[in-house]
Fold these 2 entries.
Entry 1:
Amino acid sequence: MPEMNYAKKLRGWSLRDAADAGQLLEVTCQFCRTTYRFVPHDLLKLTTNVSLDRLASRFRCERCNRSDYMGLTVRQIWGSEYGKLSVRRLINVTTVKRPIWKDGVL
């Protein structure tokens, strides 16, 4: 029997579900073949609880600066993988302040 479409599987799985199951999210740029792994708890601090099929479009590759080739897979962590996988963790969120000027007469 053929496997179900992976995008349909992701449609029924949310970011909160992946965090509760203890899974990792692998975001891969299909253009330059760079893979980033994220913990769902860290992504929940930045965004709302969204479906995983919509989450890949919110990422941008840091290497090639493209967002249209990003793909997302859900990965279950096994005991032998602890201490060997590189995972991106959220440390701090900064806000950029930009001044807005208006020209006027004194």
Entry 2:
Amino acid sequence: MIKAWDEPTEVGDTPEIKQKHEDYILKQLKSKKITHFYCSEFYRKHVIQVLGAVNRLVDCDRQTFPISGTQVRRDIAKGQAFTKINQ
């Protein structure tokens, strides 16, 4: 798990916003290879391209996991209830 606390906060589908997020992700990874990307968000399309990863679409309607990344960032403890990773 890579914890990144200073991510870009702008959300949107513009080339500029995408580029900010892509640059940030690559900086955080420090050349680590990601093979699969699990996501239910609209931005997965450009992220899998920049990572060269396989897209694994997850629970788009949030029926199984009724929490978003934004909600997890606001309340880490609540988010951990939806994972098997407890750090």
